[in-house]
Design a protein that fits this description.
By secondary structure, this protein is of the alpha/beta class. The protein contains ten helices and eleven strands. α6 crosses α10. The longest helix has 23 residues.
């Protein structure tokens, strides 16, 4: 039986609709709306597309969205000054610096500079530490989106064997922590893992985030497994994920396509993180759903 294809566009739309309702409730209670700023250094076309999509989605959810585009030669001190200004701006609840940045800028310094309460990417050391400790804080958007689609698809997590292929701070490591928090048994693998195909075949949940087009083949998949493909690779044949989708779909129980799988969830969760940041800054108890 072919796998159930998880429709990421539909799932993202559902989350964005929830956020819009909650933004309206926040506005009613606090007489303002959440504010989100995206900072871009240079004019990379992919960054332009993402920033435009983010701004449009934020406005559709009822938020204020701003875009700041800085010259490609911007120095670290100049970027730091922009971040400091936004940290001090009470109208701004969330900010992100679009990655990658030019070589003269440091992603580490950027992550340390942003106020953790406004770090809606979830990359600040404080928020990553909170994730390790299981405390409330902003969680990186893509792994959070993966958890959303797994839950909505009804994939059992407790006691499941999970393999995360990829060890980045953006996806792999936080993904493993989120799965561990849900009582899965998790292995973090990568391109240099010995006998990676055999390890993948043990997975009830396989998350591919290695950045190599169609690296994971159909015969790497355990029958009935949930396969989440985070990869977005531009090839001569078009966008491809890290999983050979057609092959894997013949074996898996669930699968996310590329495009249209996990990708749309990233912006949806950015909106949720921004709303949650606004709630925290306003003193709302978001653990109980108090608006």
């Amino acid at each position: 039986m072919a796998a159930i294809v998880i429709d990421g566009k539909a799932e993202a739309a559902a989350l964005r609709a929830e956020v819009a309702v909650d933004v309206a409730a926040f506005r009613e209670r606090h007489r303002r709306v959440p504010g989100l700023v995206g900072i871009q250094v240079g004019d990379d076309p992919a960054s332009e597309l993402y920033q435009a999509g983010k701004a449009r989605a934020a406005e559709e959810a009822g938020m204020i969205s701003r875009r700041i585009v800085l010259p490609i030669e911007t120095t670290q001190a100049e970027l730091d000054a922009v971040i400091d200004e936004l940290n001090a701006d009470d109208a701004i609840d969330g900010m992100l610096v679009q990655l990658p940045v030019p070589d003269q800028l440091s992603e580490v310094l950027i992550a340390n500079r942003i106020d953790p309460l406004k770090d809606v990417d979830g990359f600040a050391p404080v928020n990553l530490g909170r994730l390790v400790r299981g405390e409330p804080g902003s969680v990186p958007c893509t792994p959070a989106g993966v958890m959303w689609v797994l839950d909505r698809a009804g994939v059992p997590l407790e006691g499941a064997t999970a393999v995360v292929v990829g060890r980045s701070l953006i996806v792999g490591k936080p993904m493993a922590l989120l799965l561990i928090a849900r009582s899965a048994t998790v292995t973090v693998a990568h391109s240099r893992t010995k006998d990676l195909p055999a390890l993948c075949r043990t997975a009830d949940i396989l998350v591919a985030a290695v950045g190599r087009p169609e690296m994971i083949r159909g015969d790497w998949i355990k029958p009935g497994a949930a396969v989440v493909d985070v990869g977005i690779n531009r090839t001569d044949a078009g966008l491809r994920g890290d999983v050979a989708t057609a092959e894997a779909a013949e074996v898996a129980g669930w699968i996310t396509p590329v495009p249209g799988g996990v990708g749309p969830m990233t912006i949806a969760y950015l909106l949720k993180n921004t709303l949650d940041a606004a709630r925290r800054r306003a003193g709302d108890d978001i653990t109980t759903g108090d608006e």
